[in-house]
């Protein structure tokens, strides 16, 4: 049976590991927070008292950590868990981190005979719980094929973006575009409202016209236009402004390294930063609408 080591059992990693257990994988888990480990052990996981212990016997290691520094430290530090992974094992890092860190970790592990793919996710906490995440993978096809049964236990769609690091690049391109679409949609809706239009009517018109986009289809930012979305629930749940800010920071850093012009992404980053500074960091990212409506 495939032995899995899972590191990082937070809002995303916890439910992802639970779905592996539901698919009868044998999972050893570790997190710095003991309560998170205990919760998974109650669901059938094996408790590890260190990250090294969680990875030592694993065929596949999955990490779901906050940022690049955590992932680098886990796998590359001289005294880190990376030194305890057996050669031939496969590391799947699902955290959203900078592509440079993903490539450095991939190279560092490969030098020890350990395989690596980056597999950041889209779909949020709801997708992690429901097992419907989208995985955006960077790495070689053989390693992706090894990972596939494990990823399928946690998600619905699996994309191969390219070589190591490409999963991270594709993910931040998507999220940068999403932030621009959300801010632009909010801006257009408020322009209509300020000029006497009903936002429901305007949304329907734009949805059937050339302004159509994902936010109008599924995630309208104006309160009470759509049921069951964060904007109709005081912007609770969903994808936090501060997480969007993290992804926009990764996108603009990536653009600086590749000398790419991202004027729209930079604008969106400034808007979301200001929105967070005004106390909205924990709200869903569609709350950017409040910037235009000033309510
Ligand atoms: P989280 O803060 O809820 O969880 C992170 C977990 O990692 C925590 O439980 C923390 O204790 C643990 N951790 C940190 N350092 C560790 C270490 N050295 N060893 C073991 N455990 C350690 O974060 P999250 O919301 O689960 O997000 C995780 C990753 O997924 C991030 O990279 C985030 O950008 C990405 N992501 C999040 C969402 C979302 O909606 N929350 C959506 C897509 C992607």
Automatic annotation (TrEMBL):
Transmembrane domains' residue ranges: none
Domain 6-phosphogluconate dehydrogenase NADP-binding: 3-162
Top-level taxon of origin: Bacteria
Protein name: 3-hydroxyisobutyrate dehydrogenase
Nucleus in keyword set: no
Annotated metabolic or biological route of this protein: Amino-acid degradation; L-valine degradation
Gene3D superfamilies, per the entry: N-(1-d-carboxylethyl)-l-norvaline Dehydrogenase, domain 2, NAD(P)-binding Rossmann-like Domain
Gene name of the encoded protein: mmsB
